Amino acid sequence: MGRQAIQFRNQMEMDTMKLFLIPVAALVLYAASASAWAAPGTVLRNEKLYSQPAASASVTATVTKGANVEILAKQGGWLRVKAGKSTGWIRLLSVRAGAGGLGGAGLGDVVGAATSKSDPSRVVAVAGLRGLNDEDLKKAQFNADELARLDAWKVTPSQARSFASQSGLVAVNVPALPKPKPEQSASPWENN
Amino acid sequence: MNTKLMLLAVSLLAFSGTAAAFDLGKFLEDRVKQELNKDKQTQPAPTQAPAAAQSAAAAPPPTKQKIDPRQLGFALFGDYSLEEENRIGSQISGNLLGAVQLVRDDTLQRYVNLVGNWVALQSGRQDVTWRFGVLDTEDINAFAAPGGYIFVTKGLYRLLNNEADLAGVLGHEIAHVTQKHHLKVLKQSSLIGALGQAASSKVQGSDPVVQNLIGNGAEIMARGLDKDAEFEADRVGMVYAARAGYIPWGLPGVLQDMAALPAKDSRTGLLYKTHPHPADRLAALGEAVDGRLDNVSGKELADRFYRIR
């Protein structure tokens, strides 16, 4: 386990590095606050921490929705986190990475909500970068040449199948996921 | 709903028609000029109204004439045929590609098409020709259009760590096509679109009838879908990737990386305008998945993943 944990740490360190490097490349300046590799996160639902990345492992602690954690490592569908004095594995989808707290909490003020929850000192203004926006898309004129270029790159199903089998990918039967009950996703601010 | 809009359209036309013979073509042309003048960039106004507008205006409508929905363009009340779906997708994609080019990298584009087609094969939808393209912008986003057109930006591609991540992102977009999310939006707004939000000037290869239906350029891509459609695409797309033999955790991992970006990162401006916040998407996906995928394993294929410069 110890050796493994170190590997996870290294992986996490790389991931964190990347998260920091990309914004720097985009002229976004971070005032680094977190330690080198522990990324901040917020628990999205009441959950258990397990001693191993498996639901069959023993439960080491419970965490409540909204709790802050430090993300230490990632493995498949699991994150190793530190919550207060407890450390353990939690489902990947039960935590959000980043400093935005519980997050958007509803459409319409997505960016505003996220901004107000995050520490403004972490983000300094972005200079000279402007991506795709509504106006670009609205003004866009049909480009037949680019569409032809796109068409030229398409592949056939049989090419895709042989590409998949080259690396041992095999189609597996996975049932569709049910739609969760509406109130669950509608109001993340509610305590439950 | 559609009936109400119909009535509104009829009354609008009737009202306009009282003063003089109503010229929808002229009306559209004026609207186009108006739109173009709003933009700083001056472009020559189209000398001719598009064919759809002309056909709709061909017979000067007497005050009490009813509108034949078929004149206005595409099926307003039935389902879109596959041919119509392809025409709509092609027009939206051609417009999108007018706003941003494809990355000039054959190996990358071919790779994304191979992964995408393999994932799409698990969707059960065999009647469309899937086309995948990486767009040359650092913006972080992805788009789908009816008929099997899927786009990922270079900025989003840079966030990916392995082939399973790519499969998850493409699975989400493929789900928009299989669930016909954009066609449903178009059905709801088609009468408004058909009345002439505006239309593009004559451009080679452009389909004026479809353009009339979808509004200005590729603005349908800037309007986005409702959040339930996005949550559904997350659930369905994650399953497509898993069915293709990848670990199911690609898409959630990418959402985590997006959630960790600063809120004011300019590369996510349009993404957050058209999608729920990644934290909300993770929470919704978490409710749906719970322990259901605990026993699903799969491949990450980090070695085969094509990395761009």
Q: What is the structure about, briefly put?
A:
Chain A has 192 residues and is an alpha+beta fold.
Features:
heterodimer, A: about 190 residues, alpha+beta, SH3 type barrels, 5-stranded antiparallel beta sheet, two-stranded antiparallel sheet, 6 helices, 7 strands, about 30% helix, extended, disordered N terminus, disordered C terminus, B: about 300 residues, mainly alpha, 3-stranded mixed beta sheet, 14 helices, about 5% strand, globular
Mean pLDDT of chain A: 74
CATH architecture of the domain at 2-122 in chain A: Roll
Overall body shape of chain B: globular
Total DSSP E strands of chain B: 3
| Anisotropy-based shape of chain A | extended
Largest sheet of chain A: 5 strands, antiparallel
Structural class determined from secondary elements of chain A:
alpha+beta
Largest interface: A-B, 89 and 110 residues
Provide a descriptive summary of the structure in words:
- The complex is a heterodimer of chains A (192) and B (309).
- With 192 residues, chain A is α+β, with helices and mostly antiparallel strands.
- Chain A has six helices and seven strands; from the N terminus they run H-E-E-E-E-E-E-E-H-H-H-H-H.
- Chain A has helices at residues 2-25, 110-117, 134-139, 144-152, 157-166, 182-186; strands at 39-43, 47-50, 59-63, 68-75, 78-83, 86-91, 95-97.
- Chain A has a five-stranded antiparallel beta sheet with strand order 6-5-4-1-7.
- With 309 residues, chain B is mostly helical.
- Chain B has a domain at 82-182 and 221-289.
- Helices cover 53% and strands 5% of the residues of chain B.
- Chain B has a three-stranded mixed beta sheet with strand order 1-3-2, sandwiched between helices.
- In chain B, helix 11 (227-243) crosses helix 14 (278-289).
- The longest helix of chain B has 18 residues, at 2-19.
- Classes of the chains: A alpha+beta (192), B mainly alpha (309).
- At the A-B interface, helix 1, strand 7, helix 2, helix 3 and helix 4 of A face helix 4, helix 5, strand 1, helix 6 and helix 11 of B.
